[in-house]
Specification:
single chain, alpha/beta, Elongation Factor Tu (Ef-tu), domain 3, Rossmann fold, 7-stranded mixed β-sheet, 9 helices, globular
Length: 275
């Protein structure tokens, strides 16, 4: 059984779950994801692996409460068990050839870059992380990021903590100083697009994670279809990470808005709120 060993509220809308899953923990790496079902009647939902402990046999996921499955998950307690927890799926992050990497996490994207900080640091790389959020309340794992990086830069939209501005502003300042050979960015599509527009001018390799557009996690639903280098790819089976300079972000952003009205109506039914 996939027991919730530990559950921690990171901010008002985000929970961290440590799940007992020895077989997944034994094989997973940063960048990969799992598919879970809360109960036997639940939908299959993909979540990026935020951390893992091979010795303890646990895998950690960080989840924003935004839909039916995440609402059900948020209602569970430590000691409760998930119906399914399958993985690891997707391709692991491949940044081994780079020596001085900047990891950029916007919003919940900070959870995705979290395992890469430890893996890169243990490999002897110089690791700089930029994490950004709308305000101080939404910053997660600051202490842990400091322990896993050579430099941590925090930015908030409202200036309530760290530097006022965006992750793109902070990244530009770093790149102007020079010395970096790779940028790894995870966050909202528009943010990742802006990061890639910036790094393209510096000629720096940029990798992005398209995990946010995944639905089924197997390639069958087609929900995570995108164009990379003029070719059709699927984030769940071909990625979730791609060369950011080759991703057609405008197409991905346009497709992400197709069901916006239906999603809004469904959210209102879930919460009982007005539209």
């Amino acid at each position: 059984m996939f027991e919730i060993v530990k559950k921690t509220k990171l901010n008002p809308n985000t929970e961290e779950y440590v799940i007992n899953a020895p077989r997944v923990a034994a094989k997973c790496k940063g960048g990969q994801f799992v598919i879970l079902r809360v109960d036997e009647n639940g939908e299959r939902a993909p979540f990026t692996i935020a951390d893992y402990d091979r010795a303890a046999g646990t895998v950690t996921v960080i989840v924003q409460t935004v839909g039916a499955t995440t609402y059900k998950l948020a209602a569970m307690k430590e000691g409760d068990c998930l119906a399914d927890f399958v993985g690891p799926l997707g391709n692991a992050t491949e940044l081994g050839e780079y020596k001085n990497v900047v990891l950029v996490g916007g919003g919940i994207g900070s959870a995705v870059i979290y395992p890469q900080t430890a893996e890169l640091k243990s490999a002897g790389k110089r690791v700089t992380a930029i994490i950004g959020a709308r305000n101080k309340e939404l910053i997660i794992h600051e202490k842990e990021f400091k322990q896993r990086t050579d430099e941590l830069i925090i930015v908030t939209d409202d200036g309530s903590y760290g530097k006022k501005g965006t992750v793109v502003d902070a990244l530009r300042a770093l790149l102007d100083a020079g010395g970096y050979d790779c940028v790894f960015a995870v966050g909202p599509l528009r943010m990742m697009s802006a990061v890639c527009d910036l790094t393209r001018g510096y000629g720096i390799k940029t990798v992005v994670s398209m995990n946010s557009i995944m639905v089924d996690g197997t390639g069958m639903c087609g929900g995570c279809r995108l164009t990379v280098g003029g070719k059709t790819k699927y984030a769940c089976v071909d990625g979730p990470e791609f060369d950011g300079h080759a991703v057609d972000f405008e197409e991905a952003i346009s497709r992400s808005r197709i069901y916006k009205e239906q999603e809004s109506e469904h959210y209102c039914r879930l919460t009982g709120g007005g539209k």
